[in-house]
Amino acid sequence: MSRDPLLQPYQLKNLTLKNRIMITSHEPAYPEDGMPKDRYRAYHEVRAKAGVALTMTAGSAAVSRNSPPVFNNILAYKDEVVPWVRRLTDACHDHGCAVMIQLTHLGRRTHWNKGDWLPAVAPSHERETAHRAFPKQVEDWDIVRIIQDYADAAERMKEGGMDGIELQAYGHLMDQFWSPVTNSLEGPYGGSLENRMRFSFEVIDAIRKRVGDDFILGIRYTADEDLQGGITPEEGLQISHRLKETGQIDFLNVIRGHIDTDPGLTDVIPVQGMRNAPHLDFAGRVRREVGLPTFHAAKIPDVATARHAITEGLLDMVGMTRAHMADPMIVRKIKEKREGDIRPCVGATYCLDRIYQAGDALCIHNPATGRELTMPHEIAPADVSRKVVVVGAGPAGMEAARVAAERGHEVTVFEAAPDAGGQIRLTARSERRREMISIIEWRMEQCLARGVKFNFNTFAEAEDVLAECPDVAIIATGGMPHTDVLSEGNDLVASSWDIIAGDVKSGRRVLVYDDAGDHAALQAAELIAASGAHVEIMTPDRSFAPDVMAMNLVPYMRALQDKDVRFTVTYRLKAAKRSGNMITAVIGTDYSAFTEEREFDQIVINHGTIPLDELYFDLKPRSKNLGFVKQEALVFGQPQPLDANPKGEFALYRIGDAVSARNTHAAIYDALRLVKDI
Length: 678
Fold this sequence. Notes:
678 residues; alpha/beta; eight-stranded parallel beta barrel; five-stranded parallel beta sheet; 27 strands
């Protein structure tokens, strides 16, 4: 038996967990019609098969109709959820993995225009900043019904084969009762801590009466809101002890912070550039002082940190949730002593930011996550080894090379720069985003281990590719900044890349015009502002940086708002004109005929990229498929046809920004779904 602390079994009540690694409750927004159907099941089953001890579903499943999910959650208040839950639990149990589900009533953390258009309810009328609904203050009959809803949902989950349930009490109705900030009730449910916890105790009692004493019941809760007037660490410990004293709670899953604002949420679930495991010691304090089995997850991205949490007795089960989105095979690789092969979580939080914008959770550099029904996490070897040439060693090219090498092909890569990375290497120049380079470094290690040949400092032309006599040529040459967007004065501007790369020195009065809405404009603005310059960030959109999304926006705002920075939305840069040592910006708007002129000494434009596609078009006439990509095959993960040109010599594809300006996930997904069948 292994001596690795992470691989030791753990006895939780009547349930033996085979190791100390878990996936905490989270909602990837994969349900269909509120049900955890095949996509949802496949997502959890892959991780169960790879060896995780406990997977928790839903973050969170709604117990009541007037708790409508603001993104695509499981509807635990519907009876038809039971058979779908049973399929999921059976699939995970077949691999020795325990399964639990998180249940909640959202309280004010929702909106009345979702679901059945019922008013949100909460212990006060105060609106939550993030979701903006002004709730109805809960009445006695609301409380009675919601308690019944919790018990009904718990019974459904037990019937569906769950090993236990977890109640959610951070930012949702349960701890909205606890917190003085969100509870203005009088009488039995307001005022003292005992009264504020009464609703929770009544829910716990009702659940226990329904599911019995043997069924596992835990709670994920905030033991310190880190909020003025909110639950303090001392009161949080009182709450923890009171939960234990009920004799009905089997584990505590500790949270620190509040989630009613984007900055609050980001401190609870840190993004890249923020400290790893910031709340781990606090969770350890709760475990030490309360003595109940303790779980925790908050940016624990690597095996070393997880192992430390168990070895030092800080936790009983360690959550590696985002880490398992990046690599579902973590436990298997630990067992096989292949920790160096674990695909790292880079903290980009693309997963969470997408669901908070009504999308589904996807990993920035593992496109198979959430697509388990069509995309592989492990690459199968090809029947015949082929010669594959990849031009470009950015994220798309590196993924193409990795997948081709894992298929058993002979792979050669040409790259014009001295190092791999493309735009990611540029991004990682920012200290706060340096974790992004792991996307490239991991692929480089995988490629070198499989004999991929790299030719750096080589601007490949058609003759170079043809000289390799390839069976397949993949063009991943990326793009170059597109700044030719003004009616005049395009020669007077710099690109956001120029600033980030340090090729152009920052001015003192700078306009950053962002017509793309991605990270590059804010990265450039952050560098310029840090130099002491005045910066105006302007966009024609009604909000700025929409592709950066909520949680990733937080560290930018923290870096910019205390400096000489102005944010301007709904205005369009029309032209630029030289005016002595200054540049006159001609500014208009899409909403009216308004124009004005203002002076800056530097204008920086962020407007995406233009594909570097000359090599692709040079090779196209000599290819078997004439570059043709069948969309149906691409979407459904099937091999591409090669019959467009009988005289062709090789298959030709282009991927990533060599096709059009998109993002890192799109580039890597292009590569995986094309190359996995070559």
